[in-house]
Amino acid sequence: MSSNILSKIGHRKLTYALLSVVVEMQDNICIIAENKDESEVLNTIMREFLGFLSDYGKRFRKIKIPKVTVIPLDEYYENWEKYADSRLVFMEDSNFRWSLLDDFSKYLKGIVKKHGDARRVYDYIAKMLILVDFLCYNMDIRLLAIEPKVEDRKKLQEYREKKKKAEERILSFFMQRLPDRKSAQLAFKILEYIAKKMTYNTN
Amino acid sequence: MYILMMRMVKGERRLGELRQRFYRIYEASPDISRDRLVGLFKKATKQSMLAETVVDMLGKHDVRTIARELRRRCIPVSVIDVFNAFEKLRRNGYLRVIGTSLPEKKIREKEVKTVSQKIITPAVMVSPPKVETPPVEAPPIDMSEIPPPTEMGVPLEVQPVIPQQVAQVEVIMPMHLVKIVEAIKKLEIFERYLEFNEHIRAIVLASREANIVLHSVYRDINVTDATALAFLATISDHSDRVSKVLGLGEFRETIVEATQFYIMISRLKYDLVLATIFDKSIGLGLMIRDFLSLKGELALLI
Known about the structure:
The complex is a heterodimer.
Chain A (H helix, E strand, L loop, with lengths): L2 H7 L1 H13 L4 E6 L2 H20 L11 E6 H6 L8 E4 L8 H16 L3 H21 L3 H4 L7 H25 L3 H22 L1
Parallel strand pairs in A: 1-2, 1-3
Chain B lengths: L1 H19 L3 E5 L5 H12 L2 H10 L5 H10 L6 H13 L3 E6 L74 H13 L1 H8 L3 E8 L4 E7 L6 H21 L7 E5 L3 E7 L4 E8 L4 H18 L1
Antiparallel strand pairs in B: 1-2, 3-4, 3-7, 5-6, 6-7
Helix pairs in contact in B: 2-3, 2-5, 4-5
């Protein structure tokens, strides 16, 4: 991922777009860039990224790889009704207060600094996603999303302790397969977010 | 040519944006707790009553639906109030837009009577009814008192009177007004207010200078464009005079209270006059809030 691209679009915006594609679990995502230049750059990146993910397509059993459309703001407002079915990702919302986005942004920054190659960045994201998908498929991830309403304090305490232990086990699963603790924590956060999305989308 | 095209594109975009904004679905940051969010809404809107309802509806419903629900719970807010509060929090990163809902079907045609003919034609003069009275005999004229006719030196030429065609009154709306009215109609602003507030009986936008009603909607009220225009002209004129005589500056707004209705009138840019007729049963707070919101929305287009 060249610094030229990053200078055109900005690191935060790029991260927001990539993260939204990966975690929102929607069939169609419409990314709305602030201008035409930004839209062209994002379009190129998204085509590359989705092409890369499609190579892993068969390995994703739970995670949805969406169809992505990138358009500038002007074009969107002229035909906004067309995109009513899509999940909208406005680039102007990249300042959204979201710790997952902050962590993902730091993570990508580190990889770009280390390797500087877009394919390596995509490769890291894809590997992480495969692990997340594996857990989504093999365990009941609703437990990560729902806090049961238990009136008995002792039972609630017990439940929380069990949940904490399960979370530690998931974290150690990620740590064994990912290079460092930070990556593992990020993967866990992504899993948690996806669990919420899956739980509330199906309910 | 290029500049003109760019302007048109920008105009289309702006209209699209204005139309889209009330259909937006906002989502709160997942890192912010419900209590904190309620607190933020209380701070942003200065209304504690709406905060909890709004927070519970975030991420599921669009701005219009949220505003409608708040009004159902007797919280006097307009759609634009809700939108403004959301945008304030969005700018600070607490909310983001995740989608839009599709526009609902237009307000039931039966309820809204739009008057297509806006030009006011002069009223036909009705001749007074003939009064049948018995013929009165004229008194006899004394012919001796009438002087004999004198001869004129130059014979008078009879000038033929050319019948002139009666000019038809055709009021042509200036282009900028046409654009404004088109935008208002496209955005269905009047219809939306009529739908949201059951106390509204009529909304009229008129140009005082040209004597035309530019756009109007009526519901269950015996008012036509002609009567509305006459009424508006009178009130505006009186208000103008009062303002001048008392040295109060320019007339801006008037509230008229009648036995059955309230009428709010406001003068906008380009000497346009906006009037809304409300049922007497409406709360004054809601009436003023809705009227000012409507005025605010029009001001964005004018």
